[in-house]
Write a structure and sequence with these properties.
The protein is of the alpha+beta class. 50% of the residues lie in helices and 9% in strands. It has a domain of 52 residues. GO terms for molecular function: heme binding; iron ion binding; monooxygenase activity; oxidoreductase activity, acting on paired donors, with incorporation or reduction of molecular oxygen.
Amino acid sequence: MLAGAPGTAAAAAAASVLALEGGEHALAWGVALYVICVATWTLADAVGARLVFRGKIPSVPWRPNLMFNVYATPRRNLLDRISRRMAAARDGNDATTKHRHRHRAFATVVGNCPFAHVGGAALARAALDRQPVKSPLYRAFEAFAGVGIFTAEGDDWAAKRSEVLGAFATAGLEPLAAASMRAAAGLTAEIDAQLAAAARGKGETRRSPLDDAEKGEGGEGRGGVGLEVDTAVEMDMLPRLQRATLRATFEYLAGVDLPTAAAAEAGDALHDATDQPARPAGVWEDEYLAAATDLRALIPARARSVWMLSDWAYALSPLGRLERTRIREARRLPELALRAAVPGSPLDHLRRGPAHSRRRLAGRSGGSIFGDWFLGLFRGLFRLGSRDPLLDEATTLLFAGHDTQSATLSWALLRLAGDPAAQRELRASLADDPAAMESLGLAAGDKAASASTTRTEPVQPAWRTSAGAPVLEACLRETLRLHPVAPFVARKLTSDAVASAGADGGDALTLPAGCAAGVWLHAVHRDPAVWVDPDSFDPSRWLITDSNAGGQGAGFSPRADSIHHSQGSNTPGVRVRFKGSGFMPFATGPRACVGQHLAWVYMRVVLARLVCAYEVRLAEGEGEGDALTPSVGFTVTPANAARVRLVPVGG
């Protein structure tokens, strides 16, 4: 009861009654008795929860953070600490212990909930498959995302998920591909402008620096910019990728680009003679990205801190006030997207669906009428979330879309900068496939026409299929393996999760129904039971050629399942391997990411364009280890904001 707003209200009401009826003496005894009862109940539950995993997996105490501010950079690498703890359990000297803990897991008790931290691929899949209920930890996201698809449960979640998937299917992928190409063209135009400024500062000459930079939809390589000299520039790519990704995500969801929506909003403001000044697109973007950056660290940090114990206390704290301010700022752009959404867009589809109707007042499935009313009142008083399910969903989709994809692309650039050979191979593979280049919005010249005349079978665009540009796909998959989009996924188990005994003689392990399981995807993707040389960046592990199609291929362990299954390719002789059960960057099971197929489209388009336009190098004076230091929040981003050195290709 203490953990939620209804519990806090009940305690306050009881205290008020005691004070009015019995005076201060009765109030003091009532408070003391209440504290004793709560402490006894909590201790009993904690002991019982600890016995759930006794003898099965190692147990560690839960130490919530005393969080009074948000750290811009990590003090310690949380992901490495988790991986080391799991590796220590697996690789112990005692053979029995090693076999018992082959599942790479350890336990703790969060409050009064038994919680298993999972880093083994087999146990992770068992914990996520057929588990539709999220962990209570996700309540920390409700203030921002309301009860959208990310936090909803039960029938409410099922209805909203169905409508979101239907909206994406109705809109199709073509509008997203076009928006991605425009965003990528705008990004390279900005980079070229900075390169041109750097060249002018050195007294060098160059052709028209922005030469038709934003003409068309990205069909002119790097926007038609001619770079005659080997000028290099260092820049932070993460904020630039965040802005470009936000533009593409907004355009896809609303069916109209952000500058057009902002201009229409400004025109309406002038027509209505309001006092609010017109806001250009850049102002909308700046406000949203600044708020999202804080929320990206603030919301998940609260879920690991003492503030998770009371909504009321958190709402009154300095961090609670900061969060409310950032939430108000971050929800203005989704509101604009809803007002600007055109017929046929995903948001327009959701607007007409019953699960996202503004008249739908029910919160979580199974909640009482009083509980829903009180939760709505509490949110209204402290400006947490909303009672508009459509706005909740727009907020969820816009935030998840821009944040996850920009983070992945940032890591991809850093990984390629640290591996020049892989970068050259990727660039050459694209240049040698004119059809893929053309479909990705890159200049292919006469080669594309000649290639199209020689192909007899239909070729899907490279942005649509993993087979379209195999080396590009391999680089993205390997980036997502080492740097999964969201590092942590939690579920409340509604049935037992069973990981069978391994071929090495390890014991089977059952996580009982009722406990929570937190899957650390960073550890799962480095499980030595599945991956050979798991910490190395090796895109070739995802590729097979006709010459080794029957073999294991470099990079995969013989213990990995389904590795012989491969997909067709637009590039003759090279194919992409089946992902396998140990790869789950977008989670798996019924609560897997609904937008993962959209993310692949955008990332393929943008990474291909950047790699074909620039040679990416590590920033001067920075080693690869320093560049790969993570900042852990809602997503894992580079702590150095993906600072790299860009050199024009062919300059």
